[in-house]
Amino acid sequence: PKTNYSSIIEPPFNSPSSKQTWGTMISNFFVISPRGDTIISKDYRSDRGNVGAHERSHTEAFFRKIKFWDDKEGEAQASESEQKVDEKKKKANAPPVFIMPDGLSYLHVKRNGLIFGCSTARNVSPTTVIELLSTIAKVFKDYCGTLSEEAIRKNFILLYELLDEMMDYGYPQVTQTENLKAFIYNEPIVVEPVINTGNLVNPKTASANAVHKPVISSVNASGRKNNLNNNQKNEIFVDILEKLNIIFSNNGYILNSTIDGCIQMKSYLAGNPELRLALNEDLVVGRESGQYGSVVVDDMIFNNCVNLTEFDSARTLSFVPPDGEFDVLNYRITGEFSIPFRIFPAIEEIEPNKLEISVMIRAEIPNNHFGANVCVEVPLPTCTAAANCNVIISPGSGPNNAEWVQKESKIVWTMKKFPGSSEQTMKIKVTLTQSCTTQIRREIGPISMSFEIPMYNVSNLQVRYLRIAENMPGYTPYRW
User: Fold this and answer.
1) Are 151 and 141 in contact (CB under 8 A)?
2) Of 32, 46, 11, 29, the residue nearest 163 (C-alpha)
3) Which residues pair with 354 in a beta bridge?
4) How far apart are alpha carbons 124 and 401 in whole angstroms?
5) Contact (CB, 8 A) for 404 and 378
6) Contact assessment for residue 389 and residue 404, using Cβ atoms and an 8 Å cutoff
7) Which residues contact 401 (CB under 8 A, 6 or more apart)?
8) In a structure prediction context, what are the per-residue pLDDT tens digits for the chain, which is 480 residues long?
9) Cα dihedral sign for 91, 127, 248, 367?
10) Given CA atoms 296, 299, 303, 305 in this order, what sign does their dihedral have?
11) Is this model's pTM higher than 0.90 or not?
12) What phi and psi values does residue 380 have, to the nearest 5 degrees?
């Protein structure tokens, strides 16, 4: 559930009870670029003492730690054979929370390639701090229009002003976009975002991610001021986003499948009108309720601005949208549902030191949809000497590229477009430095696949309509 940090009441910072009964929040906050450069850094408490040679040495050590993550404690307890098998695991992503040699706990989240991190000396709630970091990233995006390294560098004065208002002495104070407007006086410099290809299907529609406008008056690159009151269109963007996690067995059967979805909005409506949003009439919340419908979700979490008076009777939500980007609701679905893709792998031993791996992927979505930005990874044994890939391209598919990444010992297969109701096959010829054994065969896989399907959701959750609750002057409803 979302935490409203502005409602947290804490004792005076200089009171004796503040250090004894209240765990200190964060000691410092920083934003690191994908190259490791510290873009934003702010210290709230001097918990590190004189450990670092200079003020940003801790961020450099932190970046090296997550870039070359290696669980040394696990290695010390593992045998030599286990170490060889687990060499690939060393290159896994660092956990969101871990302790550094300086004695502080470091927490971080990644957004658009940027690392939002902080450190603390006390035993704080990790979920609360991670939610705080995610909220800071969201506020930065709302005020800059887009979240990128260039946008942060050009608006660092504005972002430091936001940090001064959002946190005091390491404690969160005001973290809602609309509440911060009264305290912010700097204007953002708008940066042109990088266009995300493959997301636009209908030329009349655009994803909310394609809208990169700050929530306050801004200045463009040429120095011309853009006043929201004069140029603002009364518009709101609605997205249904779903993240699928599916685990298949080696023969194609589904072992586990979940959907984590949300209805996301980005509001640019003047006057804060009340909106009414209607979902499927036969929507069922709670798999154990014994009811049946076209959409059955396990549970739902609503934004605190949503009024649920008519939800049980008519599946209708009413709310006053806050400024910027926000999630109206989050939902989770487990169990059986229509799988968009199925993977069928096969391994054949041609010679004692040569293998042929075949990966066939079948798209089970309708032919009027397609998968975009598809990436398939096939881990190979660490004793692989060479690997050659051959892709059988089906008609209508975009550019395909499959290559062996020797450093990471895996095959990376990328496709810009995967048409629905089609099949794609890749054959890999692998040469090993030694004879194939059962242990070596276990090093192959698991195969992972990531993709996007624009204008398509697996759960069949639908927004029947989105209306302004009352007739307000100046609002003429127009749907693209």
Assistant:
1) no
2) 29
3) 351, 431
4) 46
5) no
6) yes
7) 413, 414
8) 444 443 333 333 333 333 333 445 888 999 999 999 999 999 888 766 554 444 567 888 899 888 887 755 444 444 444 444 444 444 567 899 999 888 889 999 999 889 999 999 888 889 999 999 999 999 998 888 888 899 899 998 999 999 999 998 888 998 888 888 888 888 888 877 655 434 444 444 455 554 566 766 655 554 455 555 555 567 788 888 999 998 888 777 888 899 999 999 888 777 778 889 999 988 888 877 666 777 889 999 999 889 999 998 889 999 988 877 888 999 999 877 888 998 989 899 888 889 999 999 999 999 889 998 899 999 999 999 999 999 988 777 778 889 999 888 899 999 988 998 899 999 999 999 988 888 888 888 889 999 988 888 888 888 888 888 776 666 666 655
9) negative
10) positive
11) no
12) -115, 165
Beta carbons within 8 Å of 430's beta carbon, 6+ residues apart:
354, 355, 356, 357, 380, 381, 384, 386, 387
CB contact at 8 A, 354 and 245: no
Angle, helices 156-166/126-144, rounded to nearest 10 degrees = 140
Judge contact between 105 and 119, C-beta under 8 A. Answer: yes
The single-letter code of the amino acid at 209 is N
Closest CA to 463 of 353, 316, 365: 316
Type of residue found at 272: N
**And the tokens for 142?**
């709302």
* CA trace torsion 409, 415, 418, 424 (10° rounding): -50
Single-letter residue type at 345: P
**Which value, to the nearest 10 degrees, does the dihedral of the CA atoms of residues 137, 139, 145, 148 take?**
-20
